[in-house]
């Protein structure tokens, strides 16, 4: 049986070439775990919004939002510094301690060290049981947290804010 079908196919807006879709593993923030969605809505309600319509817009967006995909497959960006077990696909049980170690190394040697880092130096004996995540954070994730780094550096400045864009 043969038949012609005409359908729309996604194209790159910049290059005008076909976009090939493929399913790949991603990292998500579950907005319903640990009442995150409710906490976000509570904070939205407690914030003084300018313009006022921003409050309703943001609240509706959070209420309807699916889980947030925070991973991207790029060659540059803020790395998702995780090690995942090859068999179970679970993150390393000592992830918090490992991240603390990685932070110290990155502060000394710069962000590129994550890509160059030998996992044996971090994980030790059972490092072969794990793979290093090569994904980066969504740029809006790190963009939305930049104010924390500014405030930390400018300790003598007192700024009252709840959100900045």
From TrEMBL:
Which controlled-vocabulary keywords does the entry list? Answer: Aminoacyl-tRNA synthetase, ATP-binding, Ligase, Nucleotide-binding, Protein biosynthesis
A single GO cellular-component term from the record reads: cytosol
What residues does the Aminoacyl-tRNA synthetase class Ia domain cover? 21-152
Task: Tell me one GO biological process term.
Answer: isoleucyl-tRNA aminoacylation
Task: Keyword check for Cytoplasm, yes or no.
Answer: no
GO MF term list:
ATP binding; isoleucine-tRNA ligase activity
Taxonomically, the superkingdom here is Eukaryota
Output the InterPro entries linked to this UniProt entry.
aa-tRNA-synth_Ia, Ile-tRNA-ligase, Ile-tRNA_ligase, Rossmann-like_a/b/a_fold
In Swiss-Prot or TrEMBL terms, this protein is called Isoleucyl-tRNA synthetase
Q: Which organism is it from?
A: Cacopsylla melanoneura
Q: Organism classification, top ranks? A: Eukaryota, Metazoa, Ecdysozoa, Arthropoda, Hexapoda
